[in-house]
Fold this sequence. Notes:
four-stranded antiparallel β-sheet, mainly beta
Amino acid sequence: xxxxxxxxxxxxxxxxxxxxxxxxxxxxxxxxxxxxxxxxxxxxxxxxxxxxxxxxxxxxxxxxxxxxxxxxxxxxxxxxxxxxxxxxxxxxxxxxxxxxxxxxxxxxxxxxxxxxxxxxxxxxxxxxxxxxxxxxxxxxxxxxxxxxxxxxxxxxxxxxxxxxxxxxxxxxxxxxxxxxxxxxxxxxxxxxxxxxxxxxxxxxxxxxxxxxxxxxxxxxxxxxxxxxxxxxxxxxxxxxxxxxxxxxxxxxxxxxxxxxxxxx
Length: 264
């Protein structure tokens, strides 16, 4: 029954996938008035927020305690990212906003590094000038590591059978972690499926909410939500520098492993 429902959903998506169709299905309702219920409990200083602006384009902005905009980054997906050839055709944005900012790091020099789903990771300076773009399907989270590199959730799409994973797909999503330098170059790429296999846990893919009766799994198997490197501010103990913590929604699980050895 679940497979049948999913097939119907896919059919409707294909049917309505016209150039005028909205790829972004969540309602975008601007908040006209912001008020603090407990003004004395508000942390002092500025706050950085991001979301959909009035023109259905993504924005990031710094606001004061009264909600007044102090600085604004206008991030219209179709202006800042014109070449989307790396995005599968059925997932390319068709109209505003086309996607969303998911995960953002504010740097000391005023730059911001963020995932612009579904097209990739990018770095923009305080004046809105694009420093670099990484055409890799990053999503959900981006974190700054102790050595100055960024760690982002990523994914690749497999439309053909994979002999390494005969129980998966096609089609299935392989979740990855990418370590990216401050200049936008990929230093490391880690498959979460490979980490599970190296630790003898490949059978865990069947424990997810997407699993069903039978021997084949399709689609979004793990749903990687977050990846975080061990913070330099913490004292090493059970966990230490070089460890990565990831959260997998569909497995209802969190795991920590050593980046270099992939040991859980």
